[in-house]
Amino acid sequence: MADPEVATKSPESDALEDMPVAEPTTVPNTIDSPSASAAAPAPALCDNCTSDRPTPAGQKPTGEIIKLNDIDVYVSKPADYPHTPSKLLLLLTGGTGLHSVNNQIQADRFAQDGGFVVVMPDLFEGDPAPNPTTAPSSEERSATDADTGSAAPTSSFLDIFRTKAAETAKSFLIDMWLARHTEDKIMPILEKVLDGVRDEFADAVAYGDGIYAAGYCIGGRYVLLLAREQSQALRKASISERLGGITLPWAHKPAAPAPAPAPTGLGGSEGNNQSGDDLEANRQNKISGPRVKAGAIAHATLVSKDDFKGLKAPISMVSVEHDPVFPDEVRMAGEDYMRENNVEHEVQVYPGVPHGFAVVGEYEDAHIKEAQAAAFEQMLKWLAEH
């Protein structure tokens, strides 16, 4: 197993370091300078969240897609199941979704190497994240410049313009996709899947004394949410806030009638009765969760500091050093919360690897391959020990 601290940088990172920086005078005022781009807000998703690496040669999925409580799920089982008992693992993907061959192979590895019955739901209802838009190739740029007779400075401007246009279009598509797949859409899907696995794979849930969860990228955030303890009242309040003040159905419940006074002479006590409002308040403040017994996440995305609040289930985190999609500030705030609240956890930070490195996919760099194997072993060991 590779030591996370000695993993080297990805080819993409090396290429970025070697790339010459254009002089400010060659960039028109209408285009952001490199320094301005560096100060831009952190991206919600990166290309590695929305596209797959090449599939490892000779590998193909071995599971199947079925309907579970009306939700499409990919199911992968150990070869000797059900003759040998197995635990139930809920695997939550990044934006590439259910039909990604790499994600399906990832599920198969948890089944084959970890002995889990793996259920991987379609979190995005057949609508995976849009793939990244690539910039024009050097041949395309040369052909265009030859047609226009442009000189080198104009070519540099056109390169920058095309790149900016592609980035803008990609950002718009990603924003639209994220708007279609919010927490309020995904959590009900997960609730249906959790109900379904408790019925369909009751033996595996019972054998593990609960449901385990692993998540990558976007799926990592939802493992955190499932590992939290949260009152129904707080959940409703948070949904209302995200909807920007839209009135929700439960906001207008009819007032409960006043309780009838206890008949005289029967020993009725005012202190032993609760009004309808009190009963409703107690119901709404009922604590629920966590919904999973233990979780393991890799390079999570869209995570805020608040997502750690209420965390109860043990968590293992695979993180990328200086990850713009999961900033160090958020990660360290999560570590502080788990430590201060006695949440069992482990965190390994892998330097010099790209976001998304832990998902099944081929890399030429041997060090990234070693880090990928180390991350999988970290997650698998954590889940097996809990």
Helix percent band: 40-55%
Largest sheet: 8 strands, mixed
Count of DSSP E strands? 10
Order of helices and strands: HHHEEEHEHHHHEHEHHEEEHEH
Q: Average pLDDT, to the nearest integer?
A: 76
Strand order of the largest sheet: 1-2-4-3-5-8-9-10
Shape: globular
Stretches where pLDDT falls below 50 for ≥5 residues?
A: 1-41, 133-154, 232-257, 261-272
Secondary-structure content class = alpha/beta
**Ends distance:** 21 Å
Cα-based radius of gyration, to the nearest Å: 25 Å
**H/I helix tally:** 13
Strand composition percent: 5-15%
Domain Dienelactone hydrolase: 72-232, 290-385
GO molecular function, one term: hydrolase activity
InterPro entries: AB_hydrolase_fold, Dienelactn_hydro
Protein name: Alpha/Beta hydrolase protein
Task: Please tell me about this protein's structure.
- This protein has 386 residues and is α/β, with parallel strands linked by helices.
- It is 41% helix and 13% strand.
- It is built from 13 helices and ten strands.
- It has helices spanning 11-18, 34-38, 47-50, 101-114, 138-148, 152-180, 183-200, 202-207, 218-226, 232-242, 276-284, 328-340, 366-385; strands spanning 64-68, 71-76, 87-92, 116-121, 211-216, 230-231, 287-288, 294-298, 315-320, 345-350.
- The chain has an eight-stranded mixed sheet, sandwiched between helices. The chain has a two-stranded antiparallel sheet with strand order 6-7.
- Strand 1 and strand 2 (71-76) form a beta hairpin.
- The longest helix is centred in the middle third of the chain and has 29 residues, at 152-180.
- The protein is globular.
- The two termini are 21 Å apart.
- Residues 1-41, 133-154, 232-257 and 261-272 have low confidence and may be disordered.
